[in-house]
Design a protein that fits this description.
Elements (H helix, E strand, L loop, with lengths): L14 H16 L4 H13 L2 H18 L2 H8 L5
């Protein structure tokens, strides 16, 4: 089951499903010690304007090309819907 519509935008009626089946398993991979960092990243990203958000996404894409951990990438692929 996908949580996104064909345009790639999350349907508001499926947010709970998205959180339960996609984000919750992803957060569990990090472990409780990473939660403060993840909270900081999410709240900081929210505060950025669209240009800043695009820059962060671009940086992440670049870093994945150089520093992707194969084991962690496999863990993410094992989450339904990723």
């Amino acid at each position: 089951m996908t949580v996104k519509d064909p345009t790639g935008i999350l349907d508001a009626s499926r947010v709970k499903t998205y959180l339960l089946y996609s984000m919750y398993p992803l957060m569990k991979l990090y472990g409780k010690n990473a939660m403060p960092d993840l909270d900081h990243i999410c709240t900081s990203f929210y505060q950025l304007d669209d240009e800043g958000r695009k820059a962060v996404v671009d940086i992440i894409e670049t870093m994945l090309k150089i520093h992707k951990d194969p084991k962690r990438a496999e863990d993410v692929r094992n989450i339904k819907g990723w």
